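Try it yourself: sequence plus E8H, in.
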Amino acid sequence: LKGNLPKFGVEVEDEDAMSLMVSQINTWNFDLFKFAVISKDHPLVSMAYVILQSERNLLRSYNVDPPTFIKYMFVIEANYHKTNPYHNATHGADVMQSCHVLLGYSVVEQVFTDLEVFAALFASAIHDVDHPGLSNQFLSNTSNELAILYNDHAVLENHHLATAFKFLQEDELNWASGMDDKQRQLFRKMVIDLVLATDMSKHLSLLADIKTTVESSKVAHNGKLVLESYNERMLVLQGIVHSCDISSATKALPIYKAWTERIIEEFYQQGDRERDLGLNLSPMCDRQNPSIEKSQVGFIDFIVLPLWETLGELMFPYCQEMLSQLNENRMYYFSRIPESPRCSITDEPEERNNLISSSEKRKNLR
Ligand SMILES: COc1ccc(C2=NN(C3CCN(C(=O)CN4C(=O)CCC4=O)CC3)C(=O)[C@@H]3CC=CC[C@H]23)cc1OC
Ligand SMILES: [Mg+2]
Ligand SMILES: [Zn+2]
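Structure, out:
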């Protein structure tokens, strides 16, 4: 099946603009929103084709038929919900492109086999396919059929994987038929391990394991990571994919702000449904009590910074630009945390007494 494919996997209006963007494909501040427009709303198909075919020539390495792969990626892209403000195909393309950049750093390049790199990039591309724009917690709380199917464990992540691999069963989409059985089995195992590691409930244990590896990791004299076992290699790849999944705050401020607006709107839409269902609202989901700045600072302090500091240690001297951008972005939101409303004298008498007693206290201290 050797149809002559368009240069970027998809037909584009402006080939020059597309070529210019593609020349920036190895940069951390790649503008995915602009890319989505130029690729005529096929950011994931074109990103996957450019990275796997043009940049890394991985399709040929595994006898993957390009037209079949493109057809498969069109189906995956169509199964990302366009109506999700955040968890849409542009997010999938963003995580894939971010992963491509990290895997291009010499400290990890040559450390991973082509199959491992292919698995990490493919996992990034499909890691949120058919995301409903709702959290695992919401699906369990509402006894959604997916939560019943996956017994409340990594419900979304299991669904993304099953969806992606189910399409691979269809003959006209099965681009992996050219791989030998051993390769295909290992590829599938790695993709499953990688996507399951994007479940935020695994974050703390993944971070702890990566820290252990950093402490023990022997960086060889040529500045390359030395990773012995499959588990150690998979752990680092899981760390890379998970870090890319929560990398928004390490990007240039305009890009970070755009992702923040999107995730917050998606959380608010979930909160609207929780409110209608009489459920407790999940964190950051109440549009009637917005806390965008505080949530971003909290997310950075508790989740993003600890992970990226550890990745920065593992990949030193790389990832330093991400850490400095992260601190800059933290200051942006920290400096905009609204003043807590001045504590007015409350109309609760005992509160009033407390207030008077504390001012009494202050007098006594003078
Ligand atoms: C750009 O900005 C964000 C992008 C993605 C997410 C995601 N969030 N989540 C969990 C929500 C609940 N969580 C928390 O409330 C964590 N937390 C604290 O513990 C203190 C403050 C704080 O935020 C854990 C992450 C997801 O599960 C999404 C899906 C997968 C990856 C990250 C996504 C959050 C963002 O900004 C808060
Ligand atoms: Mg996810
Ligand atoms: Zn994601």
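One thing you can check immediately is this: Residues 71 and 173 are 6 Å apart (CA to CA).
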